[in-house]
Fold these 4 entries.
Entry 1:
Amino acid sequence: MKYYLQQCGIWLAAALVCAVLPLVFSSGFALSMLSQMGIAIIFALSYNMLLGQGGMLSFGHAVYYGLGGFLAMHAINMVGDGVLPLPLELLPLAGGLGGVVAGLIFGWLSTDRAGTTFALISLGIGELIAASALMLPSFFGGEEGISADRMVDTTLTGFGFGQQIEVFYLIAAWMLVCIFLMFLQTKTPLGRVANAVRDNPERAAFIGYNVRWVRTLQFTLAAFFAGIAGGLFAINYEIITAETIGAIPSGSVLMMTYIGGVGHFFGPILGAVLVTFMQLSLANITHAWLLYFGLLFVGMILWAPNGLAGIIMLHQPVWKAGLTKRLLPAYSLIALSSLVLFLGAMTLIEINYHLSLSINPDEPMSLFGITFRAQSPLAWIVAVTLIIVGFYFFRKTQHVVRRSWNEVTQMMKGGR
Amino acid sequence: MLEYVFFSILNSLVLGMLFFMLSSGLTLIFSMMGVLNFAHASFYMLGAYFGYQITNMIGFWPALIVAPLLVGALGALVERYGLRTVHKYGHVAELLFTVGLFYIIEESINLIWGRNAVTYPIPAVLDFPLFTFFSTQFSAYRMFMLLISVGMFVGLYLVLTRTRIGLIIQAALTHPDGVSALGHNVPAVFMMVFGGGSALAGLAGVIGGIFLITEPAMAATLGPIVFVVIVVGGMGSLTGAFVASLLLAAIQTFAVGIEYSLTDLLAVFGLQIDAGGLLGDIWRIQLAHTGPILPYLFMVLMLMFRPKGLMGKRES
């Protein structure tokens, strides 16, 4: 009983947060960012149905996102023309339907084997669909894509959807429903068998499960939710181009999911929020955001392969045992040295960007409020020194962290 | 017609040998280490940019030697300090590491050389038409590319079949565990193969950057094609990679000149199609325009029906 109350509490709190957030962050930029986060969360969770739960590494998940988006866009136009009597609130279902159909076909074709073969087939299908999108201009709209007007007369709630906040609430509602359904899906027999197939397909087949069919079903469901995310994308932006199907969103959903952590259900949510935030806010500050993003991704793979969720769950027992403060000194040391390393790298990157991309490289540039000339050797020396010093201490403090982590685990094992 | 066929064959040879230079390293790396190296085409791009930079500073001929060596050294470092660290987390982490590397290399290129294509012209010594057949000229540079790649092919063949290290590599292709059980330093062999494969990609970049185009998107354009080559050829089979390179290059080169669509095909059988609707375009696509999708179609079909590839000995 207590468990269920706790569960209900989490969902209620999530709904409350979604309701209050746009009132706190009410600027246009924040609202559009929140909307994008909602879409990204659905998309990343659907991706984790493949990678995390089914063990299928896909490089073409955006196919279902994009196809769903295009289908929803055509559906909006049909609703606007009065051909299709579907209220706008339910339009993402049209996207989901597109995802299901495409997912069933391509899923069946590609899930005979997992592992590298699956990854390559998904890459091939992704490239295939993205390349054909440009050849079928009537459906995909060619270079300029297709657009629609979401302010249609057929609605359930009576919202006009002229304002971004109404769109946000629609996205948030869909997001909560989708998260809930995807969470329930992990508890169903299919979700469990998908885990078994991920861990040991041979044994699962021996027990009598049709491995390929399990993967196909899991794949189709993932494609359904990706299609819903695509439908919300169509409503949110009112324009969609062939790029949405391509390699870039496929790659970024992979990164979101992995950075967030594939091992836990809530991981991709964290990843989607963080990555969307970085994409939007960093892109405003610096041209080099993709580089920082790539560095973060590689850093996560090297040092935190279980993602943000993995880091959090690793510390849960420590937190419960009340030993967190024993880790703090070591953590603050490594944070300090990483900060120095990062500052050095960042200075070097920004100097180079200034030299190669700005209109007049001779003009002084400013970083952290300090204005200097990019060509001055002092700036280079400072940057390189910071990198060397930071890297040296980073390697040193890694040992310190490991030692204090070992101490804490010892205390948890034997202490009580 | 003869002219078209003749030049298409020559051009597909040039392109195919370039593909092979890229895919030979990739297929060796993949079959030995099980790592599908997404950053392989990035090393090709690095080779092109290093070649461009060194050509500007010293000259083309030193660049032809130095740039691949630099790229190879970089590749070896990546294996030693990156991939080997990630290895313990499994193949997915290794693969994703190379994906991240792909992004980092692309952005670093943006950072240093800018987002636009750089002018990397044909060296003056080689900038003349070698011969004229009917009315089309064949440039000396293409012949030079062909020579370099054939030389590389022969060199690679000799190293793999005539040297001790080549024999170890061949053995490690099929039985990596057995080789390490015999006492060979397999990690060192891995590092060497990764470095060597990257150097070959770098060489392809130095000469291919001139032939195609040197821009930050070049890795993303060529990368998937190279995957297609190793899949179609068969994992771990150099001969397969060779055949598949030539085959794919031929498909791409020949398809460009054929302007038939499904409508034309059906018309042969006396059927008239006048399709409208959202997907009516399918019937009107000319074969010439399907160049970009043919390789992927080929790869997907191959993976579904013959995952071993044309000449592969085992599945992935």
Note: The first strand of chain B starts at residue 129 and ends at 133.
Entry 2:
Amino acid sequence: MMTTFAILVENKPGVLTRVSSLFRRRAFNIESLTVGHTDRPGVSRMTIVVDTDELGARRIEAHIYKLVNVLRVENITLAPAVFRDLAMIKVAASAESRTHIMQLVDVFRARVVDVAPDSLIIEITGTEDKIDGLLEVLRPYGVMEMVRTGRVAMSRGLRSSAAAPGEAAAGPSEDENVFHSV
Amino acid sequence: MKRTGAQIVWECLVRQGVTDIFGYPGGAILPTYDAMLDYPIRHILVRHEQGATHMADGYARASGRVGVALATSGPGATNMVTGIATAMMDSSPIVCITGQVGSKLVGSDAFQESDVTGVTLPITKHNYLVTRADDIAPTFREAFEIAASGRPGPVHIDITKDAQQSSCDFDWDAAVPKKPEFRPDWSARPEDFQRALDLINAAERPLILAGHGIILSNAMDIVRAFAEKANIPVSPTLLGIGGFPASHPLNLGMMGMHGEAWVNSAIQQADLLLAFGMRFDDRVTGNLKTYALNAKKIHIDIDAAEINKNVRADVGIVGDLKESLDVLMPGVKTGDRATWIAHIQDLKGDSAVRDIQNLPDSGHLYAAHVINDLWRATNGDAIIVTDVGQHQMWEAQYYHHDKPRSLITSGGLGTMGFALPAAIGAKLACPDKEVWVVVGDGGFQMTMCELATIVQEGIDINVAIINNGYLGMVRQWQEFFYERRYAATPLVNPDFKKLAEAFGLPAQTVTMRSEVIPAVEAARSNRKTVVIDFKVEQEDTVYPMVPAGADLDAMIRRPSPSPIVETGADVL
């Protein structure tokens, strides 16, 4: 089962290595990984997609929490959440095929972001399925190049994996024993 | 107050209560070595940095305190890797400090530069590259906290030379470690404890699997009270030995690949396994597909990542073992479980006849005899530090440990060369205890340079080399599974007596069983470290044996009635 984790980490040198190394070390294969800044200075957010079962997902979560630089982990696979992937696709476009391609772009609610004499760059945001769908219909025209960000995800509503510091509900325990857990 | 980074290292170590440190100097750590002379910490000069890490490990395991090792950059640091991995696998709290080239040179392939934090990342609980003197104190406080808390383990601190040399304000109080912003509460809920109690009180054939966690959590008394109240038999893992007294009637002996035959059979027949601070390593489960299929499992471990890792737990309790048992104890019903305990007695069958201790004396010297005699001569009261291989398994079978932290051995990583340096660390942690090294002729030669450390530091331990002229455990596998094709296992050894004497240590060679106890007694009364070379039967075999990956009760047994020299021919 494709499992999606949203992970907040301290933005320090080597943290990406620590997280990705953990997946490799424990023999889990990362399908997709994205990292970027958050609204909090010094805090980065990773979205990691991995193919595993429920028990495997729990073990991954437990392992990630052992990393000192990790602030918070959320498995948002089954939570109500918005998943997005962004792709840029460069497709061959002659004078006569350009109109057809632009109609497809409209249908998929994508955008043309660059026009060259013999090609177009199309930007599309959506679920992986939607992007795969556009890619499929563009293939006959000649896909020259593509880049995708991989999945980013955010849970809906009040639940937040990006909880602000000091948020009492899930704040740090006062118990000495939980220091860095294990 | 102003201090250099190097001084701050020692200020921190003194405040952490460190009294002994194991190390080896070099260019990138020289500022720290220079500052050392002004601080009241004993430095033990090792002969190889691997030895320093094993000593810190042995120190930690014998005492429960954090062990500390110190080395330079590059090769000094990479030599520590084996010791760090050993400590990681066996949950031993150590802090390893290494020098690093100056921060401006990092990444330039400078002399003796290596990306050692990159190397130690997957084999430490956490590691640090410190490039500023200001960061040293907070890093050290956090490192010691991480090493000793939760499931203990190794922490590595790499400090650039310029961070050691530059000065800054040292403020110990301000360097207090921050707690993590958030950690989920996975501790067991009341209903988990109730489900565990329901299983325990209903069980007819329960068994306690006693792991290292008992010792780490200091839960010896409560485990004993628990077992006695409910009359549940106990079997330790290799690292669990000493957590439950060997002489206790409920202690069945060790489980696993070279565990007692009746224990492995009992595990397969049990209806409830209580896993206390153990991790269902493949060496104790055999084939997971057929492991204890009749049993419900209650798994108590402080590491949430261990629950359901290898064996599916019916009740998983994440938490400190002692605290968890304190909660369970009042709800546990007394029981006699006489039928089950009598059944386990029956499972022993003719095991006593097969026991090498009960075979007639043929004049041959067997390793198992040496170890059993060592147990007798030391009244079972010594700290035994073993290496890895056949002698390690015989030690577990024939030295009966009643006290925690009295067997120190590399279980998870199986590191040859561990014993001699780890014993030095154990002796420094417990100067009043008698410490014996039990080591094979192969493993001894991996770290025997530390005999020089023993002489230079005036350390009084004793060394029993179980010398069979082979890499014995590998030879045993070749005997059973590779048609006795002894590829690269016969050893041509030096004369260990002369070797020890060259280091300035008294030594003796023993070839007869009648000489064993007198030799041990002589070593015990000598104030120096004595090396005894026990020349034992060459092609002896550890029984029982569960072949790797086989069902736990599919054991190869010692042939019975036994010819004195087992041929292995009638075994499979």
Note: Residues 87 and 148 of chain A are 4 Å apart (CA to CA).
Entry 3:
Amino acid sequence: MEYLLKEIHNSISAIETERYNENLSRIEKTHLENSLITLRNMERSVINKTNDELLLELSTITPSLTELINEMESSGERLNELNVKLKRLINIINFLKI
Amino acid sequence: MKKFITLLLLSIIIQGCNTLSHTKKTYVHQFATSSKDLPQYALKFNQTLSNVRKSRGVYFANTLSTPSLHLTELDNIYTQQKLDERKTILFKNSFEILNTYSKILLALSSDAYVDNLYNNIKELEYNLESLITLNNKLTSFDTPTGFINIGAKIGVVSGRIYINQKQSKEIKILLNSSDTLITNVSNNIISYLDSKNLNAIIDNEEKMLSINYLSYIQQSNRTSISNDLDYIQLKSDIDNIKKLRKTLIICMINLKESHKIMVEEINKKNSTIDTINEIKDLAKSIAEINQIIKELN
């Protein structure tokens, strides 16, 4: 739990740093806001659920984050560095599910 | 007249044999007085943590440029608040068990003659049984029920001396039969408060508060003095939650140990000690908790 919260915190922090970049398009900013909302939901799940329930809950949230990453990738290269960080979080969750 | 004097002498002898010494009754009374406000501490602990979570969530919601996302986040904050309230009830219930137990001990160890002692204890006994049953339903940890049945015995007695004897006897029975309960409930609270998960949650609130507030300042370009003061208050609340957590753990350890020692001393025919240091430590930790609670207010 401690590790997951730390990873979510790092991802939120990275997006927060990026989203005040004035060069971002309106669509890119919306993608980032949607990602933040998804990460906030993940954070709440980690806080609220026991370990067994948590993985099940996170499994239902990760597809929407993956979808957002794909959309951000297709919108240009500006958010690539951020996408790597978000993919890392998804990989950790997938690893924990095994 | 002779018959009356004989009865009076007999009463005095019986009283001397069966009632607890003043010192022993004082232990019990001090223990019960110290632990009677515990539920409000649990309430304050969870409410403060929940308030920090809600406030930083509102900062975050205000950074969202899309109104529908803003509203979604506010709805999520509200759902979380309801969930936190339910968790608080669960956490508070463990403290309510200790609190109700203390009330029974307070009634039994009181020097003052209580007219409706039977009714009071009967009601408290019922409350305690209900709380334990609820606790067993809500948690995997199991506390025995049906261990206590004082009211029925006290109800049939009359007269002050006889009641004193009965009270003393029932204090002994109650203390001996409840030590496992007190240990289990205290251990349950300690394991929750001392868990790595709770530590991670508090640390997360602290870090996320800074991130969410920074984001809020960046989004709004400038902030008000009132917002900044609120932020400082929330930081102070997190510090006090950390202090409260540590002191509550110490308090629970003291409560558990002082109860064990009190039971040992009560069972001794001739107890040689005047005071139980662990009860003093318990009172000291309660005083520290009260100080932290004042700062939280």
Note: Residues 51-74 of chain A form the longest helix (24 residues).
Entry 4:
Amino acid sequence: MAFLLLTFFILTAKFKPDDPVAVDTPASISDTKLPDKDIMTISIDKQSRVFFGIDGQFDREKMLEFVAGKYKVGFTTDEIKQFSLVSSFGVPLGNLRQLLATKDKAKFPQQGIPCDSAQNELTDWIAYARYANPKLRITIKGDVDASYDVAGKVISTLQEQNINKFNLITDLKVKPKVL
Amino acid sequence: MADIDTGGGKKVSTKVDMTPMVDLAFLLVTFFMLTTTFNKPQTMEVNMPDKTEDNKTMKVAESRTTTLVLAENDKVYYYTGTENPEVKLTNFSESGLRKVLRDKVKTVKDPIVIIKAKKESRYKNMVDVIDEMAITGVKIYALVDITPADLELLEKAPY
């Protein structure tokens, strides 16, 4: 019996997807758990760089094809395959090829996805990701020290697409006693 | 049980002691059980007001609304109403913002809190302030963009 359980847990335990960014999330009293699939994560790291990622390799491929079509960038099948393995990325579209060609992706200097009003690639990524998988739940994973300047831009990017409901990823903290 | 005759007349038991193996197995079971459940990150759901729709404006009593402005260095300014309000300063401590909000909840029926964040504030401030809403039980709140008028108001504030 015990061994049956043991094998079950070993098999179901999913390895944590490697994140290119270290994000220290703020704490909140909310204890809603995040579902484990259909998630879009917009991460904002300490230096206020924006990273984007969705789960599902097939959806990633579809999303990249849509974006490539819009920006008239042709990706090779190999590059698309590479892209489907990247859990989260933070480069402008112009540098994406270089990132995909790099073997050790953690070493590649990622400058973040542009999301200001002059050039907003984030909005395309979000739109096409939702096109590829309409069930996506949008989550923002911000660092404690990320500036509101960028966080506000990300939120208004979402709002422009009429996404008014999203989740913020937080750590758990004990609810203080009511006075 | 069938014991092997070692010839010398001595009987050697063939039973293996299973205790350490079972111990280890249970240890691993507990470990995997705990890690799988704690792995999932917590989330906080946020609902924003609809921007695209023509907002129907609704008149509410000035005393019901409190505006919080998140500023640099974890400072929070707050004021009630909109007509020449008295801007006060507080912080994220228990005796600061939480007390302010608790007092509001106690004294005003269905208070409305408007949250505005300056560009200099941190992401943590935003999460904290939304969290404070949940802690103190403020039901109606909205995160809106800061306006030049607000900044001007803060400039004039004596802090």
Note: The longest strand of chain B covers residues 42-47.
